[in-house]
Amino acid sequence: MSTTENVAQAATQASQAVQHLPVEQLVQTPFVATFTIFVLAIFIGYHVVWNVTPALHTPLMAVTNALSSIIIVGAVLQTVHIGGEAITLTSVLGAVAVFLASVNIFGGFAVTSRMLEMFKKKKK
């Protein structure tokens, strides 16, 4: 059996195993695993932002703006009424996420505008 077939068989078995789990077990992840992913995301983000060459700043900023827009969509979905309660911890965190992602997007546009001004001819 080839490696591709082994991978396909393993993926099929994994998907079948996941189908039999209740949804609650899929949603519940241990705090340590979630916190580890959060810390790794901070570490990788720090190194990506500070070690990128200046020529790649604009594409990187475009990507971060796209990711921020996705975050805003998800956060807006979390700010809706959940379980009949108007204000929950989830809705407050969603509102904070909308605010922070908006700051990132508008800051990205401001920096891009400033960079584009640097390439225009100056009036004498």
TrEMBL record:
One GO biological process this protein is involved in is: NADPH regeneration
According to Swiss-Prot or TrEMBL, what is its membrane topology?
Multi-pass membrane protein
Domain of life, per lineage: Bacteria
Can you tell me where the transmembrane regions are? 31-50, 62-80, 92-116
Task: Name the catalysed reactions.
Answer: NAD(+) + NADPH + H(+)(in) = NADH + NADP(+) + H(+)(out)
GO CC terms of this entry: plasma membrane
Q: What is its main location?
A: membrane
* GO MF terms, alphabetically ordered: NADP binding; proton-translocating NAD(P)+ transhydrogenase activity
EC numbers for this chain: 7.1.1.1
Keyword terms, alphabetized: Cell inner membrane, Cell membrane, Membrane, NAD, NADP, Translocase, Transmembrane, Transmembrane helix
Location within or outside the cell: Cell inner membrane
Task: Return the InterPro entries for the record.
Answer: NADP_transhyd_a_C
The record describes the protein's role as:
The transhydrogenation between NADH and NADP is coupled to respiration and ATP hydrolysis and functions as a proton pump across the membrane.
The protein depicted here goes by the name proton-translocating NAD(P)(+) transhydrogenase
